Amino acid sequence: MRTIAALILLLTPACFMAHGTVNEPLDGEALASLTPGASTAGDVVRVLGAPTEVVQLGRRSAWRYEHADTKEAGLFLVVVFLHGTDTRSDRSWLFFDEEEVLTHMGVTLGAQGSEYSLPGLE
User: Fold this and answer.
1) Of the candidates 110, 41, 117, 56, which has an alpha carbon nearest to the alpha carbon of residue 84?
2) DSSP class of residue 111?
3) Could you tell me the residue range of the domain that residue 54 belongs to?
4) Does the pTM exceed 0.70?
5) Residues near 113 by Cβ (< 8 Å), separated by ≥ 6?
6) What whole-number distance in Å separates Cα of residue 104 and Cα of residue 83?
7) Is 8 part of a structural domain of the chain?
């Protein structure tokens, strides 16, 4: 009976790691090549591909490009379970006027900063 109990205790601890992404990473150099007032919607599609979302703003529009990177880690030690998830994103909003000319854009590139971690063990 003690042998079975010892085997159960040795076999129940477990750990896991997982990595997931949504969409392709945004290319900072490609985004920097776009010029407000000069680049058109066609230029943007050639450089970045299809947007994740298009929002109509009257006769104007806003395009969102997004990439997310998630890393998860978990540790199960008989009575203790630790789980950590870190999701970071690249996000860009591009705004176009009535003639589909880029007027301005906002960019955040942070997806490469995601890390595997467990709470309390940093």
Assistant:
1) 117
2) G
3) 13-113
4) yes
5) 88
6) 40
7) no
| 63 inside domain | yes
**What is the distance of C-alpha 89 from the center of its chain?**
3
Helical ranges in the chain per DSSP H: 2-11, 28-32, 41-48
- Write the DSSP string, 53-71: EEEEETTEEEEEEEEEEEE
**Enclosing H/E stretch for 81:** strand 80-96
Helix (H, G, I), strand (E, B) or coil at 40: strand
Domains of the chain: total: 1
- Cα-Cα end-to-end distance for the chain: 39
In a domain, 119, yes or no: no
Q: Phi first, then psi: what are they for 111, rounded to 5°?
A: -65, -30
pLDDT digits (tens, 9 = 90+) for 55-109: 999 999 999 999 999 999 998 877 778 889 889 999 999 999 999 999 999 999 9
Closest CA to 59 of 95, 106, 91: 95
Take residue 61 and report the two structure tokens written for it: 């529009």
What is the identity of the amino acid at 115? E
- Report if residue 2 sits inside a domain: no
Predicted local confidence at residue 10, as pLDDT:
65
